[in-house]
Write a structure and sequence with these properties.
The complex is a heterodimer.
Chain A: H1 2-44, H2 46-79
Chain B: E1 2-3, E2 8-9, H1 12-29, H2 34-43, H3 48-72, H4 78-105, H5 108-136, H6 138-142, H7 156-163, E3 170-173, E4 178-182, H8 183-200, H9 205-216, H10 220-244, H11 250-270, H12 276-283, H13 285-300
Helix pairs in contact in B: 1-2, 1-3, 1-11, 2-3, 2-13, 3-10, 3-11, 4-8, 4-10, 5-12, 5-13, 7-9, 8-9, 9-10
Classes of the chains: A mainly alpha, B mainly alpha.
Chain lengths: 80, 304
């Protein structure tokens, strides 16, 4: 039981580390590139901005949830 | 990092950490965490109207992750969630309109701050009273970790009286273990929650989750999961209306959400180890943290 939770903890720590690297890259690449476009969209086309905002946050949720689940599953299998 | 939409400079690390903490609370309690996210954004100099709208956008993402995890644990009543979404959307629109009226009057920060203090404080005191009374009772003491989903509330007799009100149409909620309840009571609970969602920001889970337990009689674990599912719909609508009114900085929400994804997953797993009254007792300090932060801003005059 103790060994099992140790494995889970180690997998979770590794997941966090990989996730942190991916998220940092995401900040610099995607958000930096999207920033000015979204700013102009908010000023000029509010309704389109509202739709894009919702799609972005929902899309990010689905992608990151899938990514973290996949990472955790892969890392747990590796340490089993 | 500069966020051009709300004209604010905020460290992305700060946003990720705030998102992570709120994610844990969201997954565990089924709340949006606006009582912390709103003041946390204000602390960085974001105006209340942006704090409210941006927080809603972040909540949409976090609730998708947490509700999906709760669904795999059987903690989501889809029928109840869909009914409540209708009432919440109506209430949220009323709340957003009230914010707009206050913006025009020029006193949005003061009014929202005082309403937040009164609402958060009342919820904490009531839940402290109820959960302690439940845990001291014989039925409350008999709840154990082996059956974490077993639930009991000292407020139960009032809940039963509410469930006996027969105003047509009556609906049954088999997933939540409720044979019959008036549709209007569900809609009223959702409407009140929705109003505060639009007015104070967030998904108003701090009002709706306790209301679902105390007024509708939903077991705590199901209230948490169903509330998160319902929040996806209502917070999406709230995000859309606030974005049209120019109150959403989606870039801030996206950064916060990267931390919330991990936090929400931890919070959902943790609910499996606690009985209902213990989850409610643990909930008590959360709105008080919001009260402390808002009071600090009012007393010191700092832009929080």
């Amino acid at each position: 039981m103790k060994k099992e939770s140790e494995k889970s903890l180690r997998a979770f720590a590794a997941e966090l580390a990989i996730y942190a690297v991916l998220v940092t890259a995401y900040f610099f690449l995607v958000l930096h590139l999207l920033g000015n476009w979204l700013y102009r969209l908010d000023l000029q086309h509010r309704i389109l901005y509202a739709v894009v905002a919702l799609l972005l946050i929902a899309g990010q949720a689905v992608v990151l949830d899938a990514l973290t689940t996949l990472l955790f599953r892969l890392l747990r299998r590796r340490w089993r | 990092m500069f966020f051009p939409i709300s004209h604010s400079y905020i460290s992305p690390l700060y946003l990720v950490v705030v998102g992570f903490l709120i994610g844990i609370l969201g997954g565990f309690f089924g709340v949006g965490g606006s009582f912390i996210a709103g003041p946390a954004l204000r602390l960085m100099g974001v105006d209340w109207n942006y704090a409210v709208g941006t927080d809603l956008a972040h909540i949409v993402g976090k609730s998708i992750v947490a509700a999906r995890q709760h669904r795999t644990l059987g903690n989501v009543d889809l029928k109840l969630g869909l009914i409540m979404a209708i009432g919440t959307i109506g209430g949220a629109e009323g709340g957003a309109q009230a914010i707009q009226a206050l913006k025009r009057a020029g006193n949005v920060n003061t009014v929202v701050s005082w309403v937040a203090i009164v609402v958060y404080f009342s919820i904490s005191i009531f839940m402290l009273w109820e959960s302690q009374k439940t845990l001291r009772s014989r039925k409350g003491r008999s709840l154990n970790a082996a059956e974490p989903k077993a639930d009991h509330s000292a407020f139960g007799p009032v809940t039963e009286r509410i469930q006996r009100i027969r105003v047509w149409p009556m609906v049954s909620l088999p997933t939540s273990g409720i044979q019959e309840i008036s549709l209007w009571i569900i809609l009223l609970v959702a409407l009140v929650g929705g109003f505060f969602s639009g007015f104070l920001g967030g998904g108003a889970g701090y009002i709706r989750m306790p209301s679902m337990v105390y007024v509708l009689g939903i077991p705590t674990h199901l209230a948490v999961g169903t509330d998160l599912f319902e929040i996806i719909i209502s917070a999406s609508y709230g995000t859309f209306t606030h974005a049209i009114k120019g109150n959403v900085d989606i870039l801030i929400a996206l950064v916060m959400h990267t931390g919330a994804v991990i936090g929400a997953q931890i919070g959902v797993v943790a609910t499996q180890y606690f009985a209902g009254p213990k989850i409610r007792l643990a909930f008590v300090p959360l709105p008080l943290i919001g009260v402390a932060i808002v009071l600090y801003t009012l007393l010191t005059g700092h832009k929080l």
